[in-house]
Design a protein that fits this description.
Blueprint lengths: L3 H22 L17 H11 L1 H4 L2 E8 L2 E11 L2 E9 L9 H15 L4 E3 L6 H6 L15 H21 L2 H24 L6
Parallel strand pairs: 3-4
Antiparallel strand pairs: 1-2, 2-3
Helix pairs in contact: 1-2
């Protein structure tokens, strides 16, 4: 998808599908809007949309779509840099053609197109999704470091390190993740009730 207007429409649909998918599972949703969730931080979604308008960024932005009968049924947003094709997010229509695996079809096609374009690495980025384990040949570790140069900075670095360790430990515990997903589902229900009380339909 090359035209900016078509890219914007596709990205909105892809992020909406992804947002609904994450919320239905009780996972953290970085794509939620303030209208949808008053606790959300819409910076990530806004940053993606900004790339469409900025010359320096849109040269690296790739938006792929799988269309059937004139409608988008699966989409993928990626960035390219120095021979690396990095997938930011991917999603598909949960109501149409699910049994035909549209997401998998688009995955195979984008791998082929990335290779033809000379991309040497197809990067799925961070995440423990099962399909990544099935398709990835190599795994790269992610390392975080926190350094404070002042008294306040050292306190902030310590707090950041503890937060990082807590998140890592939670993700490694099935029981903790079950509780966290339950809490996220309750938060989503609460946000939906707020929308209804304000006379808005969640988008």
């Amino acid at each position: 998808i090359r035209e900016p207007a078509a890219q914007a429409d596709a990205i909105d649909q892809i992020l909406l599908w992804k947002s609904n998918q994450l919320e239905s599972r009780g996972d953290r949703n970085p794509y939620a809007s303030i209208v949808r969730d008053p606790f959300a931080n819409p910076a990530l979604k806004q940053s993606i949309n900004d790339c469409i308008a900025r010359e320096c960024a849109k040269k690296r932005l790739r938006v792929w779509g799988l269309f059937l009968d004139g409608g988008l049924v699966a989409g993928r947003v990626a960035f390219t840099s120095k021979g690396r094709f990095s997938i930011l997010t991917t999603s598909y229509d949960p109501e149409r053609y699910v049994n035909c695996s549209p997401g998998l079809i688009l995955l195979v096609k984008t791998i082929e197109l990335a290779a033809r374009a000379g991309q040497q690495t197809y990067d799925f980025l961070a995440g423990e999704e099962s399909y990544k384990q099935q398709w990835c040949q190599n795994e790269e570790g992610i390392h975080c470091g926190f350094t404070g140069l002042t008294t306040v900075g050292r306190f902030a670095a310590f707090a950041g390190f503890q937060k990082y360790n807590l998140k890592r430990n939670l993700k490694s515990s099935p029981q903790a993740m079950m509780m966290l997903r339950w809490a996220n589902l309750q938060r989503t229900k609460f946000a939906t009730r707020l929308d209804r009380q304000r006379g808005r339909r969640p988008g």
